[in-house]
Write a structure and sequence with these properties.
The complex is a heterodimer of chains A (114) and B (269). Chain A is built from 6 helices and no strands. With 114 residues, chain A is an all-alpha fold. The chains are: A mainly alpha (114), B mainly alpha (269).
Chain lengths: 114, 269
């Protein structure tokens, strides 16, 4: 079962990008409204959210890490949790066990694009 | 533009550090110079009430701007609650010494507020540790935890050994003295771990509140010892450490207020 499996969401590129963007947004929002605005403002300044329909997850993570240090990892873990619990995203268990949240989210995007 | 923003953050951090050092130096110099004089208690009490009061006011400003939702909203609301309890405790302490002109009894009602604050402060420390503590190795957690347990053990031993309190309140007094290092040890573990894990992130490189807690624990440890020996020695040096801790809380809140809650004006820039 190497293919990404969704409970319901779309499996095309735009669909996977959209749910990843939503999951990121929810993860950052869970920190609090004003912080959400602050992080989004910094990411916009860095051009991370330049394309509203696409996101380079590694670029996003690197910028987030530069801004928030270890807090970036928490946001990525929360994003992955949201993808699984709210959007029903599943990937190969072996892959899930061995890889970081960033790699898993990247995998979701790649499978959606395939 | 991003490089410019980073340089601005760096400059503001440097200014905050320099400002903090200067403020600690000035306030503590006054405390030091008046030690042993007639106004020692007045200055000591006033400096502690003033510094913790300023931190508490700032925490209320943060709550007003941020609200109380989300991980940080709740954490900072709890921090505000804890700081307000400490303002009350310090004020009671000051009331005994300045208004009643007597030495603060030990234990006193102030201790109840002091100890009660560990609940909300602990909530803040542990909940924000989820954010600041990513990537800490389990082995480090174990080493620091064992260190904190050993610190508590030897500290408690010292308290029991040097205890000179007598009478019916003696046991209660020692019990209160023991509660401080136990609670301190509980918050000391995440404080040390977060400081050890610091240095990364433009906004997060200095975990101010954890630094403040670490300084506070050292002040508490000295105060606990001096309390059970009936306040025999001078305590101005302990006041200086408390002032440093309260001012670190203040610096952390200033940083958070400025960097984590960007103003609407800046957002539209």
């Amino acid at each position: 079962m190497n293919k990404l499996q969704h409970g319901n969401p779309p499996t095309d590129s735009d669909g996977s990008q959209t749910i990843v963007r939503q999951a990121i947004d929810e993860a950052i929002s869970s920190l609090g409204g004003p912080i959400h605005k602050t992080i989004t403002w910094h990411m916009n300044n860095r051009g991370v959210f330049a394309d509203p329909k696409k996101i380079d997850i590694t670029f996003f993570y690197n910028n987030l890490k530069e801004l928030l240090g270890p807090g970036a990892d928490m946001i990525m873990e929360d994003t992955w949790d949201h993808l699984q619990k709210q959007y029903g995203v599943q990937i190969d268990r072996e892959f899930e066990r061995k890889h970081s949240p960033v790699e898993k989210i990247q995998r979701v995007i790649e499978v959606g694009e395939a | 533009m991003e490089q410019q923003a980073y340089l601005e953050i760096k400059k503001q951090r440097k200014n905050l550090i320099l400002g903090l050092i200067a403020t600690i130096a000035v306030i503590n110099l006054v405390v030091f110079l008046t030690a042993g004089s007639d106004i020692e208690y007045f200055i000591s009490d006033l400096s502690r009430i003033g510094t913790i009061g300023a931190a508490a006011v700032l925490s209320l400003i943060v709550i007003r701007r941020q609200g109380v939702t989300g991980l940080f909203g709740k954490a900072y609301a709890m921090l505000a609650a804890g700081l307000i309890l400490w303002v009350i405790a310090e004020s009671i302490w000051g009331y005994y010494e300045l208004a009643l002109g007597t030495e603060t009894p030990f234990p006193s009602i102030a201790d109840a507020f002091w100890l009660a604050a560990y609940g909300p402060i602990g909530y803040h420390i542990f909940s924000t540790s989820k954010f600041f503590g990513r990537g800490i190795k389990k082995s480090t957690v174990i080493v620091v935890s064992v260190g904190a347990v050993l610190f508590s053990y030897f500290y408690l031993q010292a308290i029991i050994d040097v205890s000179t309190l007598e009478g019916t309140d003696a046991l209660f007094g020692v019990g209160i003295s023991i509660a401080y290092p136990v609670f301190d040890a509980i918050v000391l573990v995440p404080a040390i771990l977060m400081i050890a894990n610091a240095g990364r992130g433009q906004l997060t490189s200095i975990p101010w509140i954890f630094v403040a807690m670490l300084v506070l624990v050292s002040a508490d440890s000295l105060l606990g010892l001096s309390a059970v020996v009936d306040f025999a020695g001078q305590t101005f040096h302990i006041t200086m450490i408390y002032n440093a801790s309260y001012l670190c809380f203040m610096a952390g809140l200033l940083w958070y207020n400025k960097q984590f809650i960007i103003s609407e004006k800046q957002l539209v820039k």
